[in-house]
């Protein structure tokens, strides 16, 4: 029995590695688009989890600081194959863009690809992916007028007050409204997910998260080590980000540009590179670390900036199932899930739509890409390739 179980585990890990790496190579468009890719692959195609479990996992990631899409990917890996599954899911999704940005670090300061047609095409792919994901999720998360209204106000609030804390405030307010409006409603069946880690391990992760946040600045002062200072800056930036991967960029600029560790020109060049590669925006840290300390610095920076997200999602997952099945919490989660739809629609408009659909031909290509994904049921990577080729064609028109 043990060899059979071991073979099943190895098969699951290899499957996670294959799927997450494919997503890491094709998931362009930022964190909101990533959630769309995840939904398409893990929920619709692989059926590794149901709609509600996915929505609840997204809601949890929205509550936690850090890169929401990466935390969702880690959570799916953990639910599929334990902590090792979470690590492999993270590595598959993250390493392609890390490697690309480490290579770009020595090239992009002298090469301008920010206005390349294929990059613009990839932005239009993000429009199609996010729109498709929103339509699918909205059917389940906003089935009635009350939750549609919550989504509407979340949309309005997120658009009118665009700050790092707006999304957190919208989610908390939606949780309160949902608690008051839906607390008497019973779910048809209790949600149950498998988290193959103990609450003791999760508690250790939470303590380690807080401990490093306090101890790293102290070690930085005591040692005077550049490496410790790097780890402290990247770890703190990764710990304090609310509102998605875009928010980490100004935090990193504040940490590294005024200190002279990286020039403003190099920083902006890396920002352009980050928009051009797939995967999480947090991998921008790999570019900065490489500029500072070579490829070793890129790997250390990546580890430090993502470590808080990993510790938080591992620390929260085992308690999440218990919370979402609590009658007093279910209503709050219903409100949060509805607000997530509004937040996703706001993100679809800005920055995705406003930076991508600039003329009628852009809208036409986005419509074709959406049709390929939603109605022709083509694989996401095919849509990505079509978007890149279409963007190049449009650049010559």
UniProtKB/TrEMBL annotation:
<feature type="transmembrane region" description="Helical">
    <location>
        <begin position="83"/>
        <end position="106"/>
    </location>
</feature>
<feature type="transmembrane region" description="Helical">
    <location>
        <begin position="299"/>
        <end position="320"/>
    </location>
</feature>
<feature type="transmembrane region" description="Helical">
    <location>
        <begin position="201"/>
        <end position="219"/>
    </location>
</feature>
<keyword id="KW-0472">Membrane</keyword>
<feature type="transmembrane region" description="Helical">
    <location>
        <begin position="364"/>
        <end position="394"/>
    </location>
</feature>
<feature type="transmembrane region" description="Helical">
    <location>
        <begin position="332"/>
        <end position="352"/>
    </location>
</feature>
<feature type="transmembrane region" description="Helical">
    <location>
        <begin position="268"/>
        <end position="287"/>
    </location>
</feature>
<comment type="similarity">
    <text>Belongs to the chromate ion transporter (CHR) (TC 2.A.51) family.</text>
</comment>
<keyword id="KW-1003">Cell membrane</keyword>
<dbReference type="InterPro" id="IPR003370">
    <property type="entry name" value="Chromate_transpt"/>
</dbReference>
<feature type="transmembrane region" description="Helical">
    <location>
        <begin position="118"/>
        <end position="138"/>
    </location>
</feature>
<keyword id="KW-1133">Transmembrane helix</keyword>
<dbReference type="Pfam" id="PF02417">
    <property type="entry name" value="Chromate_transp"/>
</dbReference>
<feature type="transmembrane region" description="Helical">
    <location>
        <begin position="150"/>
        <end position="181"/>
    </location>
</feature>
<protein>
    <submittedName>
        <fullName>Chromate transporter</fullName>
    </submittedName>
</protein>
<keyword id="KW-0812">Transmembrane</keyword>
<dbReference type="InterPro" id="IPR014047">
    <property type="entry name" value="Chr_Tranpt_l_chain"/>
</dbReference>
